[in-house]
Amino acid sequence: MVRSLWTAATGMIAQQNNVDTIANNLANVNTTGYKTETNEFKSLLYQTLQTKTTTAHAVENKPVGAQVGLGVRNAAITSQFSNGALLESESTTSFAIQGKGFFAVKGNDGQTYYTRNGDFNFMMNAQGGLTLATSDGLPVLNTNGQPITLGPNYIANRVEVDATGQLMYPDAKNNPQPIAGMQIGMTQFQNPKGLTKEGDSLYAVSAASGQPMNEATNNNLEKSVIRQGYLEGSNVQVADEMVNLIVAQRAYELNSKAITTTDDMMQTANQLKR
């Protein structure tokens, strides 16, 4: 009977992690570029009570054995990288991605990180020009892996960006002209679910994700489309998350009931001597 105590306890722990994940999804329902996460479960070891060869007749084999499971554990928490809805923005430095690409930004530690959050701004740099950056001041990188920096003669709200990420600026006749070398970089991964979550909507490369693939130099990739004046909303489905929350709560209650029932059975067995 003690086995059921530990088995039910693993179920409660697993469902608590499940509720934590669902709560995080609901908390980020309005986070730009957020990708919903799902829990995956895996059964623990099985204890063999009777093998398939244990019968009254030594020369015969039983068709099945007797094994009892010892619980469950969280195997993975996986991000679902489906596209979120496009939300209109009044900012000219708001960008949404349609496709599998990621924006690349340079972190404070000098490392390159990746994000789907395109809520950018132009900030003044040391040379008096403009640098395209995240709301935390991290420079956005171009197709060559360099910060997107404009000279002091550019006005931020006159900069346009086409569907390929190319920065444009109006000439004397007010016709948009491409700015040489200033194209927002788009990066893809063989396994984006393997990216390491760093917080602040940033992802880092890992062995599971594979190396970053530059859309500008890899012709085998389906090119992403950048939409200026839009942001990509989270892909969290509130109705689904609420249903998952109810299911997780009921599973937690059932496991706690198993612990209570086992405790009652042990108490009854202890009182048999009286």
Largest sheet: number of strands, sense, barrel closure: 3 strands, antiparallel
Order of helices and strands: HEEEEEEEEEEEEEEEEEEEEH
Q: Over all CA atoms, what is the radius of gyration?
A: 27 Å
The average pLDDT score comes to 91
User: Helix coverage percent of residues?
Assistant: 10-25%
User: Number of DSSP strands?
Assistant: 20
* Strand order across the largest sheet: 9-10-11
Shape: elongated
Distance between the termini: 20 Å
Indicate the topology.
Layout: H1 2-27, E1 37-43, E2 46-50, E3 66-69, E4 72-79, E5 86-88, E6 95-98, E7 103-106, E8 112-115, E9 121-124, E10 130-133, E11 149-150, E12 160-161, E13 166-170, E14 176-183, E15 187-188, E16 196-199, E17 202-204, E18 213-214, E19 225-228, E20 230-232, H2 238-270
Antiparallel strand pairs: 1-4, 2-3, 5-20, 6-19, 7-8, 9-10, 10-11, 12-13, 13-14, 15-18, 16-17
